[in-house]
Amino acid sequence: MSRLIKKMTVMSDSANQVCIAGAGPAGVVLSLLLARQGIPVILLEAQSDFDRDFRGDTVHASALEILEQMDLAQAVLSLSHARVERFQITTAQGNITMADFSRLDSAFPYIALIPQARFLGFLTEEAKKLPGFSLIMNAKVHDLIIDDNEVRGVIYTKDGKSFELPALLTIGADGRGSRIRELAGIKLGKTTPPMDVIWFKLPRPSIFGSANASGGRTGAGTILAILDRGNELQLGYVVVKGSFKTLREQGIAALRDELCHLEPALRECVGVLKDWSQCAILSVVTGRVDCWHRPGLLLIGDAAHVMSPVGGVGINYAIHDAVATANLLTESLLEGTVTDDDLHAVQLRRERATRFIQSVQSIIQRRIISSALKSSRPFRPPLLVRILTRFGFFQKIMARIIAYGLDPERIEPELTA
Ligand SMILES: Cc1cc2nc3c(=O)[nH]c(=O)nc-3n(C[C@H](O)[C@H](O)[C@H](O)COP(=O)(O)OP(=O)(O)OC[C@H]3O[C@@H](n4cnc5c(N)ncnc54)[C@H](O)[C@@H]3O)c2cc1C
Fold it and tell me: What share of the chain is helix, strand, coil (3-state, %, to 5)?
């Protein structure tokens, strides 16, 4: 743990204040749930907005059901968004439906593609209506306040000045490169998937009409993921880990050609891609920590388990962690004492689900994505996949695994009253 021990300068007279570092889906949803229970919450976000290149847009049925419990689903769905009912991969042999979300027994049988900046902006505006909630943007946590081996809050910088923020409980929801995790001396067991992603936006080709073009396109050693946002496309061009340098040497025109080869409709708009500065190169790392907590501190979301983009589930898992945390800790927070056992209960509740989905992602990365990227011939999915994906029940099971996983959370009834 950080060695820093400081006397606390009291910024709040509240004995049960919670400090949450990171306004991603985990931090924002947890803030809202706790503040609704009258618990004072200060949410610190290092950046000045909610737009992150890596977040994607996918909000699944189980997260929409949670929002419904919060009475926010309709308002969220009134934000401009697109819907995807089937996850399809286009190969040289035709389309394969990997998952059919329209078969889910849910009021929301689809993936809602909601740009995260809009989604998180909306949820924080909701939280701001509550008296105990404060959001501080441009507030970067750089140290922990530790007293008697217990975390008692954080120290953050804003506008070049340092501030101490005391808290009964500190939540590290600061994502895959979590500073809180590092300060607490919690090691991330990393795995390195075989791929990196080149992430960029293009105008939506008119030729797609009203159909949603989201899904995967495959070629010889290439994969393109498309998120159709209705007015623009978010694209992820998947490359073998570390191979970006070679691609860059070939020039951006080579990337444009490859994109048109993978999806001919892109000819209409690919010309706007003129420079590598329009692309974010995202190194895909996954991993998890063995212990999610220290006295006075809990990690949730990617800070506890770094998710791969496969399946577009990381946002969902971050939201489910937030719900489990609120379900299990609200009572203790209201009473003003949170024990290590309370914190461990959150890990026990969420660990099985995150391990399971990371294993599924890892199998897809090793068996399908890796062989597709290495092949010099047009991608042909493994025989078993080709057979199974012909059956509606398999497409439904895959949709269920992606949208709910194991142990999906529901907000406890007493927290929704
Ligand atoms: C290439 C790529 C594509 C992806 N696509 C998808 C997708 O389509 N769908 C999906 O569900 N998941 C996707 N994921 C995974 C997803 O992005 C994460 O699982 C999810 O964002 C985790 O949410 P979080 O709230 O835990 O953390 P984050 O969303 O990472 O939020 C953490 C927040 O903490 C802030 N922060 C960081 N350090 C500090 C600090 N010191 N002080 C204060 N604030 C700090 C950050 O600015 C950030 O806003 C993708 C991942 C990658 C790598």
Answer: 40, 25, 35
Give yes or no for a contact between 129 and 121, defined as CB atoms under 8 angstroms apart. no
Least confident interval from 185-199, 249-263, 333-347: 185-199
Paired with 335 in beta bridges are none
Measured from the Cα of 178, ligand 1's closest atom is: 38
Mean pLDDT for the chain overall: 92
CA separation for the pair 47, 179 (Å, rounded): 14
Task: Check if 234 has its Cβ closer than 6 Å to any atom of ligand 1.
Answer: no
Ligand 1 binding pocket includes 158 (Cβ within 6 Å): no
| Rounded alpha-carbon distances, angstroms, from residue 123 to 27, 52, 67, 146 | 11, 16, 10, 31
| Closest atom of ligand 1 to CA, residue 174 | 34
The answer, yes or no, to whether any atom of ligand 1 lies below 6 A from the CB of 19, is no
The enclosing H or E element of 191 equals strand 188-191
| pLDDT bracket for residue 12 (50, 70, 90) | low
Residue owning tokens 């399809």:
88
193 C-beta closer than 6 A to ligand 1? no
Q: Cα–Cα distance between 93 and 378 in angstroms, integer?
A: 9
pLDDT at 336: 94
Which protein residue's CA is at the shortest distance from atom 19 of ligand 1? 314
What would you measure as the largest C-alpha separation in the chain, in angstroms?
66
* Cβ of 26 below 6 Å from ligand 1: yes
Q: Locate the ligand 1 atom nearest the alpha carbon of residue 140 and give its number.
A: 42
